[in-house]
Amino acid sequence: MSGVVDLAAVKAAQEAKTKAEQARAEAARHGGAGAVSPADLVIDVDEAGFERDVLQRSAEVPVVIDFWAEWCQPCKQLSPVLERLAVEYDGRFLLAKIDVDANQMLMQQFGVQGIPAVFAVVAGQALPLFQGAAGEAQIRETLDQLVQVAEQRFGLTGLVVDPDADPGAQPEPALPEGPHDALLEAAVVALDAGDFAGAVQAYRNVLSDDPANSEAKLGLAQAELLQRVQGMDPQAVRKDAAEKPADAEAQIAAADLDLVGGHVEDAFGRLIETVQRTAGDDRDAVRRRLLELFEVVGTDDPRVVGARRALARALF
Fold it and tell me: Which of 86, 145, 175, 251 is the most buried (most CB within 10 A)?
């Protein structure tokens, strides 16, 4: 639930959001084709089906996990509220119920210390929401934030719900495959396997035929970033950067590590400060790398918007 998946989700956020919105519109035009029943918004999950029912589904909809047990009285108060809200939110999230007595491994994996405990998985990433009793107002506020983050950062607009759909039916894909889907899928597979050179080549193959393909552009920026940091000695890179604050190459390498480690603001701030300290070709190299990192995170991300303003101030 960590590693390459979070960068992969971020870099394709806008494209995923667009595709999801198109899928919802297409399903509506076809009378609910590709839709799920309201009954399918609440599912029971065990260890055997966790990858399929939670991790894989989290690529299309935020999955809220309710850890509960039959003997837990607060769980019996919380669970019906979550189930009702899952239907009310109309496919904006999927509720997965996990019985801790029957699924001790999952309980340990998430670090659950007591129940009820509620987590979410978004694009393969797990995050805690709240533990113990919670009022409905607090639950709604938390769910609203989850749905907003899932849509803005990962492009997840949720499932299409049709009251007339058959419960348990598998929705059919609403959109046909595009001409480059096979190459893009090959690039993602290569990323997941750690074959960054292969991913770079696959994205370049798409761009050679379709130079304006935004998903390939963003994917290439991500793959090149991961390829650059592969084999780096993090301690040596950070030591070099600390000792040479005005050295463009040292700061660029450290910024790459910052971003891969999830420290987005640190990466941006480091390069903006380096722009202020350098001049000529060094300054231009730092500026170009910063723009590449903007592409990795996503140009609509608020952190990118703020960093662009800071870069403009540093340059002019």
Answer: 251
Give strand pairing partners of 96. 43, 65
Same domain, 99 and 57: yes
Alpha-carbon distances of 57 from 60, 63, 93, 120, 162, rounded to whole Å:
6, 7, 10, 12, 18
For residues 275 and 248, give the distance between their C-alpha atoms in angstroms, rounded to a whole number: 8
What confidence tens digit (pLDDT) does each residue in 220-271 have?
A: 888 999 999 988 999 999 999 999 999 999 999 999 999 988 899 999 999 9
Q: Which pLDDT does position 24 carry in this prediction?
A: 53
Residues 42, 119: one domain? yes
Does residue 306 lie within any of the structural domains? yes
Residue finishing a domain among 192, 213, 231: 231
What is the CATH number for 254? 1.25.40
Q: Check whether residue 246 and residue 118 sit in a common domain.
A: no
Among 75, 100, 123, 259, the active-site one is 75
DSSP state of 36: B
Q: Which of 1, 33, 39, 72 is catalytic?
A: 72
Measure the CA dihedral 258/264/268/273, to 10°: -60
CB-based burial, 120-131: b 16+ in 10 Å, e otherwise: bbbbbbbeebee
Structure tokens at 120: 């979410």
Give the end of a domain, one of 214, 231, 248.
231
155 catalytic? Reply is: no
> 75 catalytic, yes or no?
yes
Give CA–CA dist 21/233, Å, rounded. 42
